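2024-03-11 09:14:02 INFO receiving multi-entity request
2024-03-11 09:14:02 INFO entity count = two
2024-03-11 09:14:03 INFO echoing inputs for audit
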Amino acid sequence: MRRTYADLHLCADSDDSERVSSAIGKASRLGYGLVGVPFPTKCADAQFDRVRKICEEAGMELASRVDLRPGTPEELINGLRKFRRRLDVVAVLCESKSVARQAARDRRVDLLNFPQVDFRRRFFDAAEAELASSSLAAFEIDVKPLLVLEGAARIRLLSSLRREVETAKEFHVPIVVSSGVSDELLMRKPSELAALTSLFDLDGTPARDAVSKNPVAIVKRNREKLGSGFVAPGIRVVRRGKDC
Amino acid sequence: MKRRYLALAIESSEMIRADEFVDAVWGAVSKMFGECGASQTSLSLISFDEQKSFAVMRAAHTAIEMVRAALATMTKIGNKPVAVHVLRVSGTIKALYRKTKP
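2024-03-11 09:21:47 INFO inference complete, emitting structure
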């Protein structure tokens, strides 16, 4: 079966219809079947609908996404309470250890993201991976810094990513590779994203899964949960009525 | 030694010359894998079409992933912003041209 490729972090400005339309069109030409566009926390339903329509016209699926950037675990819990039932994907940028740990153990979090250049605040270690493996969170890697950084900063980033990928593999935490770009010239094909992951020792099938199977599974699982018939994982309402 | 041929599309708002392109590719490969790594790729430019921004390169088949990764990291040629996309990889030039529309 043909793979559906997904970029869950296409940072197109959802306020600007023209730029969103252009970015989504390009994603379609590059071979993606699903894109995740982050929406601001104060976003009207009309904005979702407009972007969804653009995606439909381009023959793509849209996953609505929110990037939470909480300062404390309490802020994270409040954010999850507010957004979990509204959006397909919830990503958390973990800027402190307490937030990272809370995000890893909370089953409502889909993606764990870490600061890209502040290497002291990349908290994806064995403890974090163990918590994430028992919840549903995946480890998200944005490739944008690999394209824009140079020299020592890129070397340090590759070194961190290599260590983190090794940890994720050890604890069976799914890895999701996204672009994280807003500039169209920095958008890459799914096969190119997979090739870039070979720089931090993620090769072959796991690399392709990181741009297809893993992100698609997250969106599918959440859509199922957001559906009206969902009761619990594996249980859903098939029919309602007096004769049931 | 087995070789692979890569059809490349160069995306840029400005015209790119063949020599600039080759220098930039070697620069990207050696920046990412060092001179020793670059020497293992056996890269060479087979053809370059400035008008269509289309290039064909040859590389050792064992180094294809290295070349793909290095090409993906290219964001500039000189001061011109670019993106280089691999359209197709093939074992022979004939098959590459047959399957690729520049």
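2024-03-11 09:21:48 INFO post-check: The mean pLDDT of chain A is 91.
2024-03-11 09:21:48 INFO post-check: The interface with chain B takes residues 30, 146-148, 150, 185-189, 191-193, 195-196, 198-199, 203 of chain A (CB under 8 Å).
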